[in-house]
Amino acid sequence: xxxxxxxxxxxxxxxxSALARTWVTxxxxxxxxxxxxxxxxxxxxxxxxxxxxxxxxxxxxRGQELAxxxxxxxxxxxxxxxxxxxxxxxxxxxxxxxxTYDALKAEFLQRVTDLLPLDGVYLPMHGAMFxxxxxxxxxxxxxxxxxxxxxxxxxxxxxDLHGSLSRxxxxxxxxLSAFRTAPHIDREQTAQRACDMxxxxxxxxxxxxxxxxxxxxxxxxxxxxxxxxxxxxxxGQLPGLNAAPGVLDASLLVGYVWADEPRATxxxxxxxxxxxLLKKDALGQxxxxxxxxxxxxxxxxxxxxxAKSLNLECPRARLRSASKKLSx
Length: 328
Ligand SMILES: [Zn+2]
Known about the structure:
Blueprint: E1 6-7, H1 12-20, E2 36-42, E3 59-62, H2 63-67, E4 82-89, H3 98-115, E5 120-124, H4 137-149, E6 154-159, H5 167-172, E7 175-178, H6 187-204, E8 206-207, E9 209-215, H7 231-236, H8 238-242, E10 247-253, E11 266-272, H9 275-300, H10 306-310, H11 315-327
Helix pairs in contact: 3-4
């Protein structure tokens, strides 16, 4: 599905000034006019593990239980009702068992179908799910949701910054936001950013554009704490980028390193209404993260060919070799 870029009833100038204003509950449209569904699936899966994540490993919240989850209390502050579907969440593990995924997805899609017609969908995802016998499971979930709700429904999502994106994910969504802290202390703020965007766009009849710059680097979470430099200033620049007119969200994802699949890579994603500005910012962020990765790699570990990394040029290997000799 291709990106759909259009402004229904607003000129770019009107849109920019509308976005610059804080939206006020109850303005513009009747409170019951828009119908929004929310739910999704959250897990990060190491593809190197033999352990399978099964149904009993997920905490599944449905219907009213999901609506009452304190994490989603901000949804009750919007002028439009957010209807709960299903949220399945598990701690990090191995690949998800295929029949577990299929059952959760089928129930989720049925619940979404029962709510049609919908004007908006919010998907609280993680972005590093791997399912037995499937590539890009997050893409499968999100694309399947798009098929059910149709092309005119606006879809937003929130991701962990250790999530990996893909063409399917970007083409299926209209907007997204990712955590800006590691360790993650901004989960609720991220969910709120993702939903604020959706409500603003519904309120002003806007369909935003996303610019995605995949960055050909991968860093483990242990090397990308936003508490320390160089990640601190890279992620620290996002609120400033986000504040520019024509920008709805600025996100930078490290990607998920413990997954051997093609989409595993870092990403810069800009959402908004000014494609040229979004492109410039996305490329700038991408370059920053690529350079940061080089810096981190040079500081802490040997890089190069496999042979070079494994031979005695590696100080650690030399150390191991010396201690072997001592104990021999
Ligand atoms: Zn994470």
